[in-house]
C-alpha cells in the first residue's frame, strides 16, 4: 500500500514539473506566496498583543501592513499535526498525523503520525499552477523517503528535517545531524534563526531574477525549546527590563532575535522589488509553552492544551494594495488548514480533491464572505502515563466549546462569547442540547477519520 501511495504522489509531482516545463510557469500576474510559520509563539508574546516586556517592531509592522486575524486557530496544540494540516488542507488526523512525529531514539514507540502519500500537497497544487516551491527551516514530518520535503512536492529544501534541535548552534538532535539542502547533508555555522533568515534572503534574491512566481514556506524553529538566544540579545533584554527573571529574559531575547530575522526578510522583499506582489502570511504552529515563560494572554493555557492558549495563534495576511492594511478581524473563526485553499485561490491554482479547509480569499479581497457556521475539531494523540497513547480533543461550534486535556478527564463545556478565559464550566445539565450537539459532532469526526492509518511501516 505504501509503495502505491508513494508512486501516486511522485506522479503528481512529476506532472507539476511537466506542466511547468511547457509554459505554465511563464504565466504572469500571480502573486508570490510567503508563509512564515514560527514555532511555539505565545499569542501574547508580541508587543502589539500587549506583551509588557517584549519588543517586536518588525512582526508588528508586518501584521499592521495587512489584516490581522485575532480569532485564528492552529490545527493542534503541538507541532507536526498543524504542519500536516497546512500542507494538506485537512484535519491532522485525516492527514495521517494525529500527534508528534518524533526524531527516533532506540526502541522509541511514541511517534504518532505518518503524512499521507495519496493526496496532493500544497506545493504540488501550486507547482501545477506555475509556482517555484521551496521550504526553508523546520520540516518535522519525516526523515526519510517518501516523507521528505522534496518527496512531497517542494522543488527546493534548505533546512532541518527533525522535530527540534537540542542546540541552536550545533543543530543536532539526539547527537545526530539533520540539516539538509534538498537530500544532501550540510553543516552551516551559527544560530539557527540567523541561518534560516540568511538562506531565505538568498532564495528571495535568486527568485527576483526569474519570471515565475514563488511559494516559500519559511518555518523558523524559534522560539521552541531550548530557549537559547544569542548572548548579546539576552544581555540587551536584561539591561532594558529591570527585574525580569532569567527564564523570561531568555525567551524574550529569543523572540526579539526572531523578530529581527522577520524584519530582515521583509526588508529583502522590498529591496528586491518583490514586496508589492507578495502575499505574506505570519502565523504560529501552536501556542506558547508555559513552563519556559511564554505569555498566551488573554487566553487560558498553552502548548499541548486544548484551552484557547494552546490553539489560538496571532496571524496576519499582507498583500500591499490588495489586502486592507491595519484591519483587525475577530469575527471569523479561521484555522491553519484554511491556508491551503486560500493560497491556492490567490495563486490561481485548482484544488480538485476534497479537503477540510475552506478559502477565505474573498475576505482578503474585500468581497462578501458569509461562510456560515461550521464545527472545528482538535485532536492530539500522545503517549506516557498522562495520555496512554490515546486521543484528547476539543470541538467548537459557534460560541460553544467542548474540551478535555487528557483522555482520562471528563469533557468540559464553555461559552466563549461570555467567558473567553474559559474560567467557568457550564455543566451538561444546564445546556444538554448544546453538549449533545458538540459531542455528537466530535464523535462523527472521530468515526470519519478512523479509516486513516497513521503508523509508520517498520521493517
Provide structural commentary:
The protein has 459 residues and is α/β, with parallel strands linked by helices. It folds into two domains: 2-365, Alkaline Phosphatase, subunit A (3-Layer(aba) Sandwich), CATH 3.40.720; 375-449, Arylsulfatase, C-terminal domain. 30% of the residues lie in helices and 17% in strands. It is built from twelve helices and 18 strands. The chain has a ten-stranded mixed beta sheet with strand order 9-8-5-4-10-1-11-12-2-13, sandwiched between helices. Strands 15-16-17-18 form a four-stranded antiparallel beta sheet. A two-stranded parallel sheet has the order 3-14. Strand 16 and strand 17 form a beta hairpin.
- Tell me the fraction of residues in β-strands, as a range: 15-25%
CATH class of the largest domain: Alpha Beta
Helical content, roughly? 25-40%
Assigned CATH superfamily of the largest domain: Alkaline Phosphatase, subunit A
H/I helix tally: 12
Report the count of strand segments: 18
Number of domains: 2
Task: Tell me the strand order in the biggest sheet.
Answer: 9-8-5-4-10-1-11-12-2-13
Give the overall shape.
globular
Note poorly predicted spans: 1-27
CATH topology-level fold name of the largest domain? Alkaline Phosphatase, subunit A
The CA-CA distance between the termini, in Å, is 14 Å
Average the pLDDT over all residues and give the rounded result.
93
Give me the strand/helix succession.
HEHEEHHEEEEEEHEHHEHEEEHHEHEEEH
Give the name of the CATH architecture of the largest domain. 3-Layer(aba) Sandwich
Biggest β-sheet strands, sense, barrel? 10 strands, mixed
- Rounded radius of gyration (Å): 21 Å
Structural category is: alpha/beta
